[in-house]
Amino acid sequence: MSIEFIPRTPLYVQYFGANRYYSNERFRYFTKNKIKCSEIVSFDCGLFNMYEIEAHNSPLRSGTEQIIAVIVRPEIYPQNGLERQGFTFCGYDLVEDFSSISAITNCGCNFESISYDSLNEFGLISTYKEAVLTQIALVEESDDDHACCNVCEIWRKLV
Known about the structure:
13% of the residues lie in helices and 23% in strands. The chain has two helices and seven strands.
């Protein structure tokens, strides 16, 4: 019996219009100065005033500065095609499904299993493997509701 290679099918991508979010004194205090980047890109409804749009080329509200593309529970390979649409890969977020709260940016940096020093320039985890291992460690470490979260692949396009 031979195994046939089946090409990866596109995953479901959600698009959101949002303004950019820069680290400020309040954010640095909340995160105990553990997140060192100056700009945060996240799928966290607590940080961003995001609104869902139908597609990456949908009309945007006035003043929108970026489009965030989110793939919940991505596979190990980055989504093909988003870079051809002008998106830049930002990293992986760990987001609680029910509340859309990021375990990385919106839990006061209280999780020991998140390596805050290794977050990338957007405050995200750079590799899928590290995101999955962190996700598993979070569940094992804590009974906090936000510790049980999904890996979300985050892309963005500045407008």
